[in-house]
Amino acid sequence: GDRRLRGREGDDCIIDVPVGTVAMDIQTGRMICDVDVENRLFLLQEGTKGGCLTNNYLGRRGGERWIKLVMKSIADVGLVGYPNAGKSSLLSMVSKSAPKIGSYPFTTLKPTVGVVRTGDHSKEISIADIPGLIEGAHENRGLGHLFLQHIERTKTLLFVLDVQGFQLSYREPHRTPYETFVYLCRELELYMPGLTKRNVVVAVNKMDTEGADEEYETFVGQYREHLRNLVSVEAIVPVSCYTGQGREHLTQLIMDIKYRRK
């Protein structure tokens, strides 16, 4: 039969995506491109030479490729912490977001983004409440990779720690605030080395609870003695989402971090 290919050339298909989008090949699982700058074109699937007079109309058929687009860049600041540390409450306190909040772990199952603006609206910063991590997140426990990929694309990491420590369940050991911070840093570094070298702020939450001042001072002392040379922290801020303690200080701090680079 006649194998010659005739017909007009096909049109280019251009898909507009926001910065922070990653294109993945569904069949191989490999990353095709990482859209990390604006107004740049990335080739996802190359077209083929159509039939024309110069090749006796012996063109090649176009290929087929299944592609998945993943949005990884979501905010200037990412809230990092174990479940029930108060990340959603903190986001609600400092921004105009109204995330679902409950008194049990794993309230947040997908990122929620809130926006903080100055009074004259001249500056703003976006903050993402990343779902709570658990130990082994770097090995994809508890949907760890799904949550960690969002943290990967935030410029500032805001760790939220419960001043009373954390215990996932009665089967798990209780972690002090310092131990919690160490384990969180470990998960981030095992997932992506260098992740904790970004701007890091620590908010020690629930300062309205009994014995909070002593626990806070213990955490600060342990960090300065054992960890400050490994993880550089911009500031450790005592906060209470219940009373509003530390709200203005924390808000101004993360705003300054963003705009000092401009």
Give an overview of the whole structure.
By secondary structure, the chain is an alpha/beta fold. Helices cover 23% and strands 19% of the residues. It is built from 5 helices and 9 strands; from the N terminus they run ββββαββαβαβαβα. A 6-stranded mixed sheet has the order 5-6-4-7-8-9, sandwiched between helices. It has a 3-stranded antiparallel sheet with strand order 2-1-3, with no helix packed on it. Strand 7 (156-162), helix 3 and strand 8 (199-205) form a beta-alpha-beta unit. The longest helix is centred in the last third of the chain and has 15 residues, at 177-191. It starts with 20 loop residues before the first strand and ends with a helix.
Summarize it:
This protein has about 260 residues and is an alpha/beta fold. It has five helices and nine strands; from the N terminus they run E-E-E-E-H-E-E-H-E-H-E-H-E-H.
